Amino acid sequence: LVNDSGFIEMPLLEKIYVSGLNIDQISDSIKQKAFRFLKNPQVIAKLANFKFTVLGEVKVPGVKQVTANQVNIMEALAYGGDISYNGNRKKILLLRQTAEGTQSYRINLAKGNIVDSDMYYIMPNDIIYVEPLKSTLFREQASDYVFVVSALSSTLTAVALILNLLK
Protein backbone atom coordinates (compact mmCIF):
# COMPACT_ATOMS: atom_id res chain seq x y z
CA LEU A 1 0.00 0.00 0.00
CA VAL A 2 1.13 3.51 -0.74
CA ASN A 3 0.83 5.89 2.22
CA ASP A 4 -0.28 9.53 2.02
CA SER A 5 3.34 10.66 1.65
CA GLY A 6 3.84 8.51 -1.47
CA PHE A 7 5.94 5.75 0.14
CA ILE A 8 5.63 1.96 0.21
CA GLU A 9 6.95 0.32 3.37
CA MET A 10 8.21 -3.22 2.95
CA PRO A 11 9.97 -5.43 5.48
CA LEU A 12 13.77 -5.36 4.99
CA LEU A 13 13.56 -2.99 2.00
CA GLU A 14 12.80 0.13 4.05
CA LYS A 15 10.69 2.92 2.55
CA ILE A 16 10.45 3.26 -1.22
CA TYR A 17 9.15 6.50 -2.73
CA VAL A 18 6.68 5.70 -5.53
CA SER A 19 4.53 8.80 -5.91
CA GLY A 20 4.27 9.84 -9.57
CA LEU A 21 5.74 6.55 -10.86
CA ASN A 22 3.93 4.14 -13.14
CA ILE A 23 3.57 0.42 -12.35
CA ASP A 24 6.70 -0.61 -14.27
CA GLN A 25 8.82 2.05 -12.56
CA ILE A 26 7.52 0.94 -9.16
CA SER A 27 8.41 -2.70 -9.95
CA ASP A 28 11.92 -1.64 -10.97
CA SER A 29 12.41 0.42 -7.79
CA ILE A 30 11.36 -2.47 -5.58
CA LYS A 31 13.52 -4.89 -7.59
CA GLN A 32 16.62 -2.66 -7.18
CA LYS A 33 16.13 -2.63 -3.40
CA ALA A 34 15.50 -6.39 -3.33
CA PHE A 35 18.81 -7.17 -5.11
CA ARG A 36 20.56 -6.50 -1.79
CA PHE A 37 18.89 -9.61 -0.33
CA LEU A 38 17.94 -11.82 -3.29
CA LYS A 39 19.83 -13.10 -6.35
CA ASN A 40 17.02 -12.87 -8.89
CA PRO A 41 14.03 -11.04 -7.39
CA GLN A 42 10.69 -11.25 -9.18
CA VAL A 43 8.43 -8.28 -8.48
CA ILE A 44 4.84 -7.85 -9.57
CA ALA A 45 3.24 -4.53 -8.72
CA LYS A 46 -0.47 -3.91 -9.26
CA LEU A 47 -2.94 -1.22 -8.41
CA ALA A 48 -5.30 -2.68 -5.84
CA ASN A 49 -7.88 -0.04 -6.75
CA PHE A 50 -8.07 3.62 -7.45
CA LYS A 51 -10.69 6.29 -7.72
CA PHE A 52 -11.46 9.07 -10.15
CA THR A 53 -14.36 11.48 -10.49
CA VAL A 54 -16.61 12.04 -13.49
CA LEU A 55 -18.69 15.24 -13.48
CA GLY A 56 -20.74 17.38 -15.82
CA GLU A 57 -22.82 16.13 -18.71
CA VAL A 58 -22.64 12.39 -18.02
CA LYS A 59 -25.53 10.13 -17.11
CA VAL A 60 -24.12 8.94 -13.75
CA PRO A 61 -21.72 11.54 -12.31
CA GLY A 62 -19.73 10.84 -9.17
CA VAL A 63 -16.65 9.21 -7.70
CA LYS A 64 -15.82 5.89 -9.36
CA GLN A 65 -13.67 3.17 -7.78
CA VAL A 66 -12.06 0.65 -10.11
CA THR A 67 -9.86 -2.37 -9.60
CA ALA A 68 -8.41 -2.43 -13.12
CA ASN A 69 -4.72 -1.71 -13.60
CA GLN A 70 -5.40 0.91 -16.26
CA VAL A 71 -8.50 2.82 -17.28
CA ASN A 72 -8.51 4.98 -20.39
CA ILE A 73 -10.62 8.10 -20.91
CA MET A 74 -13.26 6.18 -22.89
CA GLU A 75 -13.67 3.59 -20.15
CA ALA A 76 -13.78 6.30 -17.50
CA LEU A 77 -16.64 8.01 -19.33
CA ALA A 78 -18.37 4.63 -19.64
CA TYR A 79 -18.16 4.28 -15.83
CA GLY A 80 -20.07 7.57 -15.77
CA GLY A 81 -22.78 6.14 -18.01
CA ASP A 82 -21.34 7.84 -21.12
CA ILE A 83 -21.68 11.44 -22.22
CA SER A 84 -25.29 12.62 -22.15
CA TYR A 85 -27.15 14.10 -25.11
CA ASN A 86 -26.21 17.58 -23.87
CA GLY A 87 -22.50 16.81 -23.40
CA ASN A 88 -19.80 18.33 -25.58
CA ARG A 89 -17.40 15.62 -26.76
CA LYS A 90 -15.01 18.32 -27.96
CA LYS A 91 -14.68 20.04 -24.58
CA ILE A 92 -13.67 17.70 -21.78
CA LEU A 93 -11.61 19.03 -18.90
CA LEU A 94 -9.20 16.71 -17.09
CA LEU A 95 -7.82 17.84 -13.73
CA ARG A 96 -4.78 15.89 -12.52
CA GLN A 97 -2.73 16.18 -9.33
CA THR A 98 0.99 16.38 -10.01
CA ALA A 99 4.06 17.23 -7.97
CA GLU A 100 3.75 20.83 -9.23
CA GLY A 101 0.09 21.07 -8.20
CA THR A 102 -3.16 20.58 -10.06
CA GLN A 103 -2.77 20.56 -13.84
CA SER A 104 -5.68 21.03 -16.23
CA TYR A 105 -5.86 19.52 -19.69
CA ARG A 106 -8.40 19.93 -22.50
CA ILE A 107 -9.47 16.80 -24.35
CA ASN A 108 -11.26 16.69 -27.70
CA LEU A 109 -12.65 13.20 -28.28
CA ALA A 110 -13.57 14.13 -31.86
CA LYS A 111 -9.88 14.11 -32.77
CA GLY A 112 -8.14 10.81 -33.33
CA ASN A 113 -4.91 11.74 -31.54
CA ILE A 114 -6.21 11.14 -28.00
CA VAL A 115 -4.80 7.59 -28.02
CA ASP A 116 -1.26 8.95 -28.33
CA SER A 117 -1.80 11.55 -25.61
CA ASP A 118 -0.63 11.51 -21.97
CA MET A 119 -4.26 12.05 -21.01
CA TYR A 120 -5.46 8.80 -22.61
CA TYR A 121 -4.99 6.82 -19.39
CA ILE A 122 -6.67 8.02 -16.22
CA MET A 123 -4.53 8.37 -13.11
CA PRO A 124 -5.73 7.94 -9.52
CA ASN A 125 -7.72 10.96 -8.25
CA ASP A 126 -8.23 12.46 -11.73
CA ILE A 127 -11.33 14.59 -12.21
CA ILE A 128 -13.07 14.48 -15.58
CA TYR A 129 -15.57 17.25 -16.37
CA VAL A 130 -17.72 17.08 -19.51
CA GLU A 131 -18.87 20.56 -20.51
CA PRO A 132 -22.41 21.15 -21.83
CA LEU A 133 -23.05 22.04 -25.45
CA LYS A 134 -23.59 25.74 -26.16
CA SER A 135 -27.02 24.89 -27.62
CA THR A 136 -27.98 23.31 -24.29
CA LEU A 137 -27.16 26.51 -22.43
CA PHE A 138 -29.18 28.51 -24.98
CA ARG A 139 -32.17 26.16 -24.69
CA GLU A 140 -32.14 26.41 -20.90
CA GLN A 141 -31.90 30.21 -20.95
CA ALA A 142 -34.40 30.56 -23.82
CA SER A 143 -37.12 28.81 -21.80
CA ASP A 144 -36.75 31.49 -19.11
CA TYR A 145 -37.09 34.27 -21.69
CA VAL A 146 -40.10 32.60 -23.35
CA PHE A 147 -41.83 32.46 -19.94
CA VAL A 148 -41.27 36.21 -19.38
CA VAL A 149 -42.47 37.12 -22.89
CA SER A 150 -45.52 34.88 -22.48
CA ALA A 151 -46.40 36.45 -19.12
CA LEU A 152 -46.03 39.98 -20.54
CA SER A 153 -48.15 39.21 -23.61
CA SER A 154 -50.86 37.64 -21.44
CA THR A 155 -50.87 40.70 -19.18
CA LEU A 156 -51.05 43.10 -22.15
CA THR A 157 -53.86 41.08 -23.70
CA ALA A 158 -55.82 41.15 -20.44
CA VAL A 159 -55.31 44.93 -20.08
CA ALA A 160 -56.41 45.50 -23.71
CA LEU A 161 -59.51 43.35 -23.15
CA ILE A 162 -60.47 45.26 -20.00
CA LEU A 163 -59.97 48.61 -21.76
CA ASN A 164 -62.19 47.46 -24.68
CA LEU A 165 -64.92 46.34 -22.25
CA LEU A 166 -64.85 49.69 -20.44
CA LYS A 167 -65.41 51.69 -23.66
**Tell me, what's the shape?**
rod-shaped
Strand fraction:
25-35%
Number of helices: 3
End-to-end distance: 87 Å
Give the low-confidence spans.
Answer: none
Mean pLDDT: 86
Tell me the total number of β-strands. Answer: 9
Proportion in helices: 25-40%
Strand order of the largest sheet: 4-3-9-6-7
Secondary structure elements and their pairing?
Blueprint: E1 7-10, E2 14-17, H1 23-34, E3 50-56, E4 62-66, E5 71-72, H2 73-79, E6 87-98, E7 101-107, E8 121-122, E9 127-132, H3 134-166
Parallel strand pairs: 3-9
Antiparallel strand pairs: 1-2, 3-4, 5-8, 6-7, 6-9
Overview of the molecule:
This protein starts with 6 loop residues before the first strand and ends with a helix. The strands form 3 sheets. A 5-stranded mixed β-sheet has the order 4-3-9-6-7. The protein has a two-stranded antiparallel sheet with strand order 1-2. The chain is built from 3 helices and 9 strands, in the order E-E-H-E-E-E-H-E-E-E-E-H. With 167 residues, it is an alpha+beta fold. The protein has helices at residues 23-34, 73-79, 134-166; strands at residues 7-10, 14-17, 50-56, 62-66, 71-72, 87-98, 101-107, 121-122, 127-132.
